[in-house]
Specification:
By secondary structure, this protein is of the alpha+beta class. The chain has two helices and six strands, in the order βββαβαββ.
Length: 87
C-alpha cells in the first residue's frame, strides 16, 4: 500500500489512502469517506480533501458518530485536508 507522510498536518503522520472530494457538495464528501473507510482496516488513515464549506462541520461530526478519529486537519491548495483514522 502506498503510504505517504502528512508532515504539514499532524506531526509527520502517515496515511494509507487518499480521497479527493473537491468539487463535491454536502453530503457527498462524507458519504464517499464512509464508503472508502468501510474497505479499510481499523487503524488505517484516510486523507480526505474537500472544498465544501459544510465539510468543516460534517467531517468531525461524522467521525465522532461513526467511531473514527479525526487525527489531523490542514489546508492544501485551497482545500481542507482531514486525516481520519478508522475506528
Amino acid at each position: 500500500m502506498d503510504r505517504r507522510r502528512a508532515t504539514a498536518y499532524h506531526g509527520g503522520m502517515d496515511w494509507d489512502l487518499d480521497l479527493d472530494a473537491r468539487g463535491l457538495i454536502c453530503p457527498l464528501p462524507v458519504l464517499k469517506a464512509r464508503k472508502r473507510l468501510s474497505g479499510m482496516a481499523a487503524g488505517q488513515v484516510l486523507r480526505l480533501l474537500a472544498d465544501d464549506p459544510a465539510a468543516v462541520v460534517d467531517v468531525p461530526f461524522f467521525c465522532s458518530e461513526a467511531g473514527h478519529e479525526l487525527a489531523g486537519t490542514g489546508e492544501e491548495g485551497g482545500a481542507q485536508v482531514y486525516l481520519i483514522r478508522k475506528g
